[in-house]
Design brief:
This protein has about 230 residues and is of the alpha+beta class. It is built from 6 helices and 10 strands, in the order ααβαββββαβαββββα. It has helices at about 15-20, 45, 70-75, 115-130, 160-165, 205-220; strands spanning about 50-60, 80, 90-95, 95-100, 105-110, 140-150, 170, 180-185, 190, 195-205. The protein has a 10-stranded antiparallel beta sheet, covered by helices on one side. The chain is elongated and about 65 Å long.
């Protein structure tokens, strides 16, 4: 199992990674002037909507091998079941986050609502490991994924959206109620629902979340249900 794969509980009920990988990446025509996706992005003042960050996944290298059984026995709010998952699952309340600690010394931190919270939480987990007697360091902190969401406040014709943007979207309502839209620049995957709810994932920077929404909003307006 890869060290950067979280347990099922980390999921936000989105499609599996295999589902997202199956979505075709748009070709050069995506950016041609004749493409239906070619437009001038709207500005936040046009609609007053800004995506809210719901989850940030970050990674840290603690720089030492970890005895996971020892950590699970002596740390608070920690659990370890190697038959189910090869990492200690640890939680703290402030910031409210979950960490996955691997014996290699790699750590994954999930649940933060901002970059600052994610870094603070990761430092707190590293400090817990240090207090247990491990020569842990705080190195190679990196944001791996940011998930944002928003509501455009109008219903969307997903069938029409898929019909015109099928080259870079995937829609099978029998399997998943949302349309999966893969944007190339910025490289973001959007889950678009008929209710007008939009989930944006795959970003490593908050600006990419905002830029992706500004790019998709004019398209969504074109497929607003009458």
């Amino acid at each position: 199992m890869s060290e950067y794969e979280g347990p099922p509980s980390v999921s936000l009920s989105a499609p599996s990674l295999a589902d997202l990988k199956s979505v075709p990446t748009p070709g050069p025509s995506y950016f041609s002037l004749n493409s239906p996706a070619a437009f001038t992005p709207s500005t936040p003042m046009d609609h007053g909507i800004e995506p809210t960050i719901q989850n940030i996944v970050s990674t840290v290298n603690l720089g030492c091998r970890l005895d996971l059984k020892q950590i699970a026995l002596h740390a608070r709010n920690a659990e370890y079941n190697p038959k189910r998952f090869a990492a200690v699952i640890m939680r703290i309340r402030e910031p409210r986050t979950t960490a996955l600690l691997f014996n290699s010394g790699k750590m994954v931190c999930t649940g933060a609502k901002s970059e600052e919270e994610s870094r603070l939480a990761a430092r707190k987990y590293a400090r817990v490991v240090q207090k247990l007697g491990f020569p842990a360091k705080f190195t190679e902190f990196k944001i791996q994924n940011m998930v944002g969401s928003c509501d455009v406040k109008f219903p969307i014709r997903l069938e029409g959206l898929y019909a015109q943007h099928g080259q870079f979207s995937h829609y099978e309502p029998e399997l998943f109620p949302g349309l999966i839209y893969r944007m190339l620049r910025p490289k973001i995957v959007l889950l678009i629902f008929v209710s007008g709810k939009v989930v944006l994932t795959g970003a490593k920077d908050r600006n990419d979340i905002n830029a992706a929404f500004e790019c998709i909003y004019p398209i969504l307006k074109n497929f607003k249900k009458k």
